[in-house]
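pipeline stage [seq->struct] | target=Integrase zinc-binding domain-containing protein | organism=Blyttiomyces helicus | residues=114
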Amino acid sequence: MFRHFRLGETLAALVKDFPWPTMWKDTKVYFRSCYTCYLNKDRILFPPGAQRNVPIPDHLLDDICLDWTSPFPLTLDRHYTLLVLCDRKSSLVRVIPTTKDTTPLDTEKELYVQ
């Protein structure tokens, strides 16, 4: 029965019965080209950092979060993306219809118009 071993297990199995001079290099090349091995490889993850609460701002509009969400059905004004703004102090949410082609300058203008 065939299964995908890790690199070390594969090399250990190969060296017992089929050793050859470039075995390490060839096996690494195979692992990099095998899609199943790529999906199932061990990932080295950093340990999570200390959790901290983000301090609540002292005044309204001191700290706002913004995000774009899309796609949505096209509106009559040809908008299909939303710019979502949230004030962290009051939890007030403002939604501004935009397009995918909106530039940072356009966004700045929209923020001051609203």
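stage status: PASS
auto-comment: The two ends are 64 Å apart (CA to CA). Strands lie at 64-69, 81-87, 93-98.
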